[in-house]
Amino acid sequence: MYLITSKTSANNFCVSVLFLHQFSFNMFEPHVGRVFQNRFSTQYRCYSVSMLAGPNDRSDVEKGGKIIMPPSALDQLSRLNITYPMLFKLTNKNSDRMTHCGVLEFVADEGICYLPHWMMQNLLLEEGGLVQVESVNLMVATYSKFQPQSPDFLDITNPKAVLENALRNFACLTTGDVIAINYNEKIYELRVMETKPDKAVSIIECDMNVDFDAPLGYKEPERHMQHPEEPTEEETDPSNYEMDIGFRAFTGSGNRLDGKKKGIEPSPAPLDPSDIKRGIPSYDFKMGRITFIRNSRQQPRKTETDDTISNFIAFSGEGQSLRKKDRKP
Description:
The protein is of the alpha/beta class. It has helices at 10-35, 71-79, 117-123, 159-166, 233-236, 304-310, and strands at residues 41-48, 66-68, 87-92, 97-105, 112-115, 129-136, 139-140, 143-148, 172-174, 178-183, 186-196, 200-202, 209-212, 242-243, 276-277. The protein is elongated.
């Protein structure tokens, strides 16, 4: 260390000042860098939630898009100038895959974080793989579009209500991710096809419009036009018409007191054309129109006598007398 005195030469004075300036700059530079740092970035070994030790069942983590981090992460985040809610970007550098998530708790072991199984599949991570965790700021979502990965999703009566309830456990969405929701003890996978206004958005306290794409592997049912078929020869043959097998008078057989069967054979009555039933086609039929015909009795036609009866007024006639009016008493 150099001390500056009045006896020091000009050259020595310049060298001493330069040395002290260099020393002070190197000593305080790391401290200055930490003061302005406002970004969290570190690596963890990731495991699925089923590997989380503890007596409590943490299946709720699998139903959302949040992870569990160690307590040291909370200590570092509290010292940084970050925005809330805490959102993170997860990156697998080996496969160049990334996604975004929120944090649920800070109870994991040091150096370890626990992820939902569907999130590990998107990142192509195995148990114990390294994942880069960075704090990010995302824009609020205004629109998102999903594609179910199975036609079974169409069996849900109100899919938008089910999705809205499931997204309450998510903090953000990333275009290209395949998220998993649990409904009625069944897991449905949905691919995030589009998000606005950015490819990664925050869905916390937002008013977001949701749209659905056709499910993967879904085929619309084919509609076949039914053309009227011409009647065949069997249908036009009168011998194939249905007959009225209702009651017919005097068509039974008789019995004799002596037990003989001579002369008791029934003589079949001639078949009347009215006994044959056949459908009468409607020549006014139009495709897509249904006509209901009610069997109502026809009203009898009015005649002149009916008009006189309808105009009858009681006690309106003229009386007759036996006495003649011209006869004098």
